[in-house]
Amino acid sequence: MYPGTHALTNPGRPALIMTATGEIVTYAELEDRSRRAANWLFDAGLRPGDVVGLLSDNSSWIFDIYWATQRSGLYLMPINYRLSPSEVEASS
């Protein structure tokens, strides 16, 4: 379910817990972070239907970008961070 719905009813409830670090992100934080990321993507010129490639290790901000793309009508293309630069280039 869309995190904004939970942010309205249970803003302090954990949306995710990173077990490796103990980091906790609440629904309110996820909603705010993903909204700011969506605005940043729009300001960068991305529009509905555009594709965002995401190369990352296991980090909580992945969810910010995921929900930012969802709310903006963008497509998210995850890219395995273990790929070599030539493999990343070949996949785009």
Automatic annotation (TrEMBL):
One family name in Pfam for this protein: AMP-binding
Designated name of the protein: AMP-binding protein
Domain AMP-dependent synthetase/ligase: 7-89
Signal peptide: none
Gene3D superfamilies according to UniProt: 3.40.50.980
Organism: Bradyrhizobium xenonodulans
InterPro entries: AMP-dep_synth/lig_dom, ATP-dep_AMP-bd_enzyme
PANTHER family in the record: LONG-CHAIN-FATTY-ACID--COA LIGASE, NONRIBOSOMAL PEPTIDE SYNTHASE PES1 (EUROFUNG)-RELATED
Organism superkingdom: Bacteria
